[in-house]
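Problem: given the chain below (551 residues), write out its structure.
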Amino acid sequence: MHYALRNVSLITIAVFMLTACSTKSYHNEMTTDVEKLVNEKSYDRVRNSYSEELVSEKNKNKEFIDILSDKSLGDVLKELELIDGNFYYLKSSDILVPKSRMKIHNMAELNQYLNAVLDKELFIKKNGSIYLVKLLSTSETKKQSIKDIPFKLNGQISVEELIKLITAESGYEVSIGNYIKDKDDFQNSIVSVRSKNLINAINSLAHAKNVYVDIDYDKEMINIKRYKDVVVELNIPLLNITTTNETSSSETSGESKVENSSEIILYDELDKMMKNIIGNDSISTYHIDKASGLIFMKATKTVESAVRTIAKAYEDSFAREATIVFERIELVLNKSREYGIGSVSRTAGASDSTGVTKSLATEGAISFLNQGATRLLQVTGTIDNQIGKILNYSKNVMVLKNNIPSVQSISQNTDYIEKIETTVNDNVTTSEATVNTIKDGTSITAMAKISRDKLFLNITPNIKKLISISEATVGDSTIQLPEYKDQSYNISREIKVGETSIVGSIIVHDDAKEYEGILPLEGFAIGGSDSKSYVRREIVYVVSVESIKGF
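Solution.
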């Protein structure tokens, strides 16, 4: 019995030892064996299959777009891409889509909604895999649509048949205007048409028959008219351009003004051209508004085309301009010598000075110095070219527009009483004087015809000299009568870019009393036929062309 118990104990101990050892070793070995038998791809398949049984997944596509909150059209198009799988690109300006409880399922519903609430439509054009989207007004959409209507025609056809084809293809009604005198002859006439789309055919009709063919997209009408009210704009400078500034002048003792002004005088020429273009057409009319530069016309298509061609020619002409340096020299001439200025020329050489210099030694010899070139003033004189005394000198930079007169003047304004009007009312006498002004001074009008590297300059110097103002009595009123002299002449000169030239001079005889204290009168005053003494004053105009542009 003791032997049996001992055997049982030994078996129990052996089983316990075997059990303890096999729990660790057999698990690891089995795991390792399984990993060797199952590869990664098979393992992922088993794992995914197992997870799918645990979790049920469903992919559900977006069915509609809600606009309960603020959304832009661009945002709505992005959501629409998720519904229909297309790609949209908005080419027009983005807008905020009005909020609504409506659900939008496709592009057609979106277009209907925008048309209902905004009176606008989406114009969609496919380009490759992208749909280009524009938001247009209803008339703009119709305009885009009619341009795309195919209309292949190459040959001759009557106007009537062409109109029928246009109506059939577009659905638009065609109206013939009242100014087309014989409508039957017009419709039976033959036109040559070569077109690929409807717009080409309409333009061919307009060109062949000299008519306006206008499309009213809102009313879906095509109107054929012989005449039309049109406005043509002349993009040219203003009629009057004037600048003034006050300055002092040694020749007079009052207030003087330097004035530069330009005036366009082309409207008379334009009026003649308009009459020639219209000819014997009794219905065509026009009006030229000089203030705004607009031409208002009732005209045919050919007349409008001709007038627009003229307007374009004027615009191109006035785009040309020349920059010139304009110098004005006043000399008091010595009475005992010959006098006058010959010419100005440029010679090579450098100088650090600019402007005009006066020699103190000779008290009258003058010379010019300019950057990069020396300008020699040739004078007619005997001893050291002492022709007199420089009285005044001015230098201005001017921009001359092609064919536009420009005026530069130095004047002194003198007011005088032109007339007096007396009225008696209830034994009360009232007098009202009308005061006028005389511009006493010198001016020069210059107009240039500008070429590529030169200009043809036409100038007109003018001098108005106030001699005296006398008084005259008319009834009980006393008025003032001015006495003055006008002196002017005209000269033309061609000057190239970079050249300097005397373009004119004018000699004036002033009362010697005006120069007392300024000049030794015994050397400058000369006698006159009216027993007065005079001083000769020469005003010289020198022009240098700096640049020309506008070609």
